[in-house]
Amino acid sequence: MKALNIAWYTLLRNLRDLKSMAEVILIAIITVLILGSALGRAYDVQNISRRKAVFINMDKSVLSERFESFINTEEIKDILEINRVESYESGMELLKEGKVSAMIVIEKGTFEKINLGQEAPIKIYHRKTKTFSSMLVDNIVENFISGANITIAKSSIGGNMEGLVRKDLLQRVPLSAKGNIPRALDYYGVTILVLMIMYGSLYSVDGMGDDYLEGMRNRLFSTPVRLSSHFTGKIAGTVFTVYIQALVIIFFTKLVYNVNWGSNMAQVLFIAFTLAVFSVSMGLMTVMVAKDVKIANAALSTIIPVMTFISGGYVWIRIESSLIDLLPSKLVHTAFFNSIYGEFSGQTISSVAILWVMILLMGIVSVIAGRRRLN
Amino acid sequence: MVLEIKNIVKRYNDVLAVDNVSLSIREGEIYGLLGPNGAGKSTTINTILGLTKIDSGSINVFGKDFGSNEMEIKKEIGIVPQDIAVFEDLSAYENVVFFGKLYGLKGSLLTERAKEALEFTGIWEKRESYPKKFSGGMKRRLNIACAIVHQPKLIIMDEPTVGIDPQSRNHILESVKELNRKGSTIIYTSHYMEEVEELCTYITIMDNGRIIAGGTKDELKEMVSSDEKVEIKVSDVNYTLTESLKKMDGVKEVVLEKNMLSIVSARNISNLGKVIDTITESGSEILSLNIERPTLETVFLTLTGRTLRD
What we know:
Chain A has helices at about 1-15, 20-40, 60-70, 75, 90-95, 110-115, 130-155, 160-180, 185-200, 200-215, 215-220, 225-255, 265-290, 295-310, 320-325, 330-340, 345-375; strands at about 50-55, 80-85, 100-105, 125.
């Protein structure tokens, strides 16, 4: 109850600071608009030129013929030209020379094995560096296999295999290629929201600094309230403050800019909530360890923009590193984009789970640092 | 005993902040803790509140060990910190209610106590105002209201009158006396010796982390001086008069400078009436009279060799 009391009064005090609240929301809304408009062309799907790949089919089954028809449909031809080559060597030659982005190889008996439930992958050869084009090929093959799997599953329970394959696959490809690709506004709607919530950690630094490091400290800590309740209440009040700001930004960008937040709004809101808790816990830990509001503010004001830049918050960049994948802002981007554009929520769940583990660790560090201050 | 501290030691790295301090505070006392900055007063207070962990020694509050009954004990203590500790963005009423809730009050009892605390400190009429609009004195009063909303048995006041106008200061001093009359035991620290002299029933003087003296104000003064000095300005003086004064009971020294007589007598010898009679009978007129008694400042100066504000 006492933690709830602290949370309520923290929220009340923050909400009364209307100027700061409005500033954060306005800056976020205006930044999304500016970046979304200025860099709009960089995210335009029409800028994707037609890519090339080659294909060897050594399998003679009905499914391999279906695969050939699939890659020759108009929707795929718009973005990827896949030509048949006669030998593995000639295909590799073209790949090495950089004339094509990838080579797809279907070996003899591949689809028969698939029908029997055995492992028989369709092989895709790329150049050393993975490019957008090679990812496009991966995606298309994956799409075919995904559709084929569904068809085989349906066939095994008595469905019509031939018709289902054609219908299912032909409908899936255009959806992935056109309807779901983010515009700049969609991209910056997410990344600026993440940046804004990350800056919420400064609320935590100032709030904790004012109340638990300076003049208020003795009065608050001399009340019959446990340290963990003080921290829980303070964190909860600050989290709700940051979350309210996040909600305003999400719904404003959705309704006014028509930013795509996906079809699973509950998931998006939960990710935003997770990030708000993370951000506030990060602020708490920083100020408790630094024991100085100015140092903590300076540290976070440096770390947050750098982290945002590396994880592609300002402009989309791709750096292959598992360490960077563990950056909180990168984890949140992954969670948001997978929730909005992905068909499977595995990556969203794992990213959010990692963030909660980090929150727990930061909470433990904060309480230890807080207790040390009492000595 | 409301509070019993035995041999507490607190060290910050190489600095010995509290050096083997022991003190006992009886119920109903206004206990003065006097000392210059860095004397160890605040550290001692912080150990009582559990804000600073002690290296050794023991603290018993209301007859219970503080370490194992911390939350229970804290419910009965109110703290008025030296720095004004109120939220500028909450109204006076909200501030008092917030702290009341932290001390476990709720419902109609909380409303009633908040009203009492604000009325007691004279800011009920301003309850809807925000502290940022308050004068320094009003903020100090709100600082006290937040500490007494739960009607604690023990109130710790750390320099509660720093930097305020005389009117608010008098109000606060009267409030302290009233709280004490209502049954609260009070620990009062201050730089202002006249406040401590006026309020406190027992005074402890601290310096360099140690207690250097303790007692009632009279006991402390007794410690540093057994004499009393009277300065009398007269219209006319002669050799016979000074010799007569020197021969009087209890008089130790008579010094004449121009027409000012300085007479040093032993304390507790009531000879002032006879001194006045002797002067008037000699035909001289008394123009002014000043009795010099040792103050707490004198006590501190004698014990430490420096003034309190050094």
